[in-house]
Specification:
- This protein has 21 helices and 27 strands.
- It is of the alpha/beta class.
- Among the domains are: 157-348 and 523-547, Dimethylsulfoxide Reductase, domain 2 (3-Layer(aba) Sandwich), CATH 3.40.228; 566-677, Barwin-like endoglucanases.
- The strands form seven sheets. A six-stranded mixed β-sheet has the order 5-4-17-16-15-6, with helices on one face.
- The longest helix is centred in the first third of the chain and has 19 residues, at 96-114.
- Bound molecules: iron/sulfur cluster.
- Iron/sulfur cluster is lined by residues 21, 23, 25, 27-29, 59-60, 62-63, 195, 577.
Length: 680
């Protein structure tokens, strides 16, 4: 497979191109890009006549200013090998030929000595679409017999819950929220991520609809809401179960719908039974009258929709919490009308998309335990990791138990390749860095998981330096290692066909973007049904029941032993997409803290330096008072790079590498910390 990166527009052209955003964001915006001399000069929303309706009109400032990322001083320009100590970031350029030769040599050596499982590919969403991830890379690593990665750092519990209950049914289209009489935004902050929902919610309120926000802090959206519930992190499950209990207790549950479309009703009813409003109030910290008001509004509204975000899952109860939230529209009888039901990920609007490379049956490493695996702190069966290949990810800035990850990356006997667009914190620990193209410089396919849309994306700018695409680099490595077969795709059109199927590819080529299979925005239980074997919602599915040690919907109480009384949350922020663009963040990031918690520690308003710490690690930074936080909750943003704190650590240094009840996901919001002043 010797795919060459496609020729972008010739330098010297001044032109406007249309493409789409493949960043790890629900919206998948249609973009208009101005290019001069092969360089991007301006990015904005594509005009309405060719844009997906959801994202027509505006895009986020992150991508609006992406030229700072494309042409900034951190951009990787050439393959380079390490010259100094790991972590120092000293490198000297080498040719692509030498770089790929070195990778092949180190992979072969590791396999010969320790077996294929001593090689671990590590990737996440990064900025990649359907062509540049799980395609040629899957061929390379799976056919070579490498260890496999469970991408559990985000969305794993939510996916497990959505699959278990509904077999991943397509959700309510975000555009339809305008027609909702009540929208509950639960554990999501669309002002930072998935921004196109915000004006729609505003329009719904202008039409008389109500808005409820469930979040431990007063987000910008919560300030506009008719009701804001602030549960203590990790207790959303109790809140959802209390609502279920009330539906059954009052006889408001839609028994007719449940009899026809659901299983596990009695199990759910039994497990919700202990959760009175008063008990839920005690555990969550949400006043019982507020829970009652939420119940009254939700039970009485139609259409009523729940936007379940990924904030719900990031704790020990995360899988059960998402399941309980997603079960609400079934129990409450909210389906079968436009704008009635729920939205989690809308990726299910498109089925049978992607390249299916068979699993080699090798061990699977949980992403949340990469630090353990790299340091042999608690290795699962198999040889030690000797070759780590990082792409579309910045694990040092995003994985829990950061100190363990750092110690692993610093191992001299670990050969680490980082294939990225910029010199990330992780890349500074690499033995070999490879420069990657961005989504504006290569071919890809963008599929929204909020917007129901599939876009074709084309290179609109010249790749910077010697940057190459994933498809090209992984294809060439697979070729050098003799892993290719005659029927493997050999070009971008062939890859498109393999990933999409012929009919979709044809439509995409003709129409530029493709809308869901239903041909219109689906109504749940009218146009789309659960993809379970019996097409019913399984409110207490056996698969989730056995996975959770204490059973589905069992509440695990407050973690820790009281030494660390503050709950640390690390939500998304408008400046970054996970850690992408973190290098561009100006200044230092403060710890945000409620004024009462600050006063209790003698931390005045003069932004004192503090040490945030627990048994996992510490972050040294300034503190900022924020009365929008629930008392007892502190905040450090997600995806912060080392340069943005005094200690070079971020919230991941304080995050436990424990796992959620189902889905084996990350428990970032189970971080419990203490804060003390540092002398200036
Ligand atoms: S990051 Fe999200 S909001 Fe920003 S351009 Fe990409 S898809 Fe749109």
């Amino acid at each position: 497979m010797t795919i060459a990166d496609p020729a972008p527009p010739a330098t010297g052209d001044a032109a406007i191109h249309h493409t789409a955003c493949t960043l790890d964001c629900p919206d998948s915006c249609s973009l208009e890009v101005e290019v001069e001399h092969g360089r991007v000069t301006r990015v904005r929303a594509a005009p309405p006549e060719i844009a997906h309706p959801l994202t027509s009109g505006f895009i986020c400032s992150k991508v609006g200013r992406i030229s700072r990322h494309l042409y900034g001083e951190d951009r990787l320009l050439h393959p380079a090998v390490r010259t100094g100590v790991k972590g120092d970031g000293g490198f000297r350029p080498v040719s692509w030929d030498d770089a790929l030769g070195l990778i092949v040599q180190r992979m072969m050596e590791a396999k010969a000595t320790f077996g294929g499982e001593s090689i671990l590919p590590l990737s996440y969403g990064g900025s990649n679409g359907l062509l540049t991830q799980d395609t040629a890379d899957a061929i390379l690593f799976r056919r070579f017999g490498a260890s496999q990665l469970a991408r559990t750092v985000c969305a794993a519990p939510s996916t497990a819950a959505a699959l278990g209950l509904y077999g991943k049914m397509a959700g309510v289209a975000l555009e339809d929220y305008e027609h909702a009489s009540l929208a509950i935004v639960w554990g999501a902050n669309p002002s930072s991520t998935g921004i196109h929902l915000v004006p729609i919610l505003r329009a719904a309120r202008a039409r008389g609809g109500k808005l409820v926000v469930v979040d431990p802090r007063r987000t910008p959206l919560a300030k506009q809401a008719d009701l804001h519930l602030q549960p203590r992190p990790g207790t959303d499950l109790c809140l959802a179960l209390a609502l279920h209990r009330e539906f059954f207790r009052r006889g408001d549950a839609d028994l007719e719908f449940l009899a026809e479309h659901a299983t596990g009703v009695d199990e759910l009813r039994r497990r919700a039974e202990p959760w009175t409003f008063e008990r839920a109030a005690e555990v969550t910290g949400v006043p019982a009258p507020d829970i009652a008001r939420c119940y009254d509004w939700y039970s009485g509204a139609s259409p009523a929709v729940i936007r379940c975000g990924w904030g719900v899952e990031r704790n020990r109860n995360g899988g059960s919490a998402v399941a309980a939230v997603l079960a609400l529209p079934a129990v409450a009888g909210k389906f079968k009308v436009r704008a009635g039901g729920y939205t989690m990920s809308n990726g299910a609007a498109f089925r049978n998309v992607g390249w299916r490379e068979p699993s080699p049956g090798t061990r699977i490493v949980n992403m949340n335990h990469v630090g353990r695996e790299l340091t042999d702190a608690d290795p699962i069966q198999g040889p030690p990791i000797r070759v780590l290949f990082v792409y579309n990810a910045n694990p040092l800035a995003t994985l829990p138990n950061q100190e363990l990850v750092r110690r692993g990356l610093a191992r001299e006997d670990l050969f680490t390749v980082v294939f990225d667009q910029v010199m990330t914190d992780t890349a500074a620990y690499a033995d070999l860095v490879l420069p990657a193209t961005t989504f504006l410089e290569h071919d890809d396919l963008a599929m929204g998981y909020g917007a129901m849309v599939l876009h074709d994306t084309k290179p609109v700018a010249q790749p910077v330096g010697e940057a190459r695409s994933n498809l090209r680099v992984f294809g060439e490595l697979a070729d050098r290692l003799g892993l290719l077969r005659n029927d493997d795709p050999r070009s971008e059109p062939e890859w498109r066909q393999a990933v999409l199927g012929g009919e979709r590819q044809r439509r995409l080529a003709e129409e530029g973007l493709v809308l869901p299979e239903t041909g219109r925005r689906p109504i749940q239980f009218v146009d789309v049904f659960p993809h379970t074997a019996d097409r019913k919602v399984h409110l207490c599915p056996p698969s989730l029941e056995t996975e959770s040690a204490r059973g589905l919907y069992a509440f695990h109480s407050e973690p820790g032993d009281g030494r660390y009384p503050l709950a640390l949350i690390s939500p998304s922020v408008p400046q970054t997409v996970s850690s992408t663009f973190g290098q561009l963040r100006p200044g230092q990031v403060p710890l945000e803290m409620h004024p009462d918690d600050a006063a209790a520690r003698g931390l005045g308003r003069d932004k004192p330096r503090v040490r945030v710490f627990n048994d996992y690690g510490e972050v040294r930074c300034r503190v900022r008072h924020n009365a929008d936080l629930k008392p007892g909750v502190v905040l450090l943003p997600k995806g912060v790079w080392a340069r943005s704190t005094e200690s070079g650590t971020n919230a991941c240094a304080l995050a436990p590498d424990t796992l959620t009840d189902i889905g084996a996901g990350a428990c970032f919001n189970d971080a419990r910390v203490q804060v003390e002043a540092l002398a200036d």
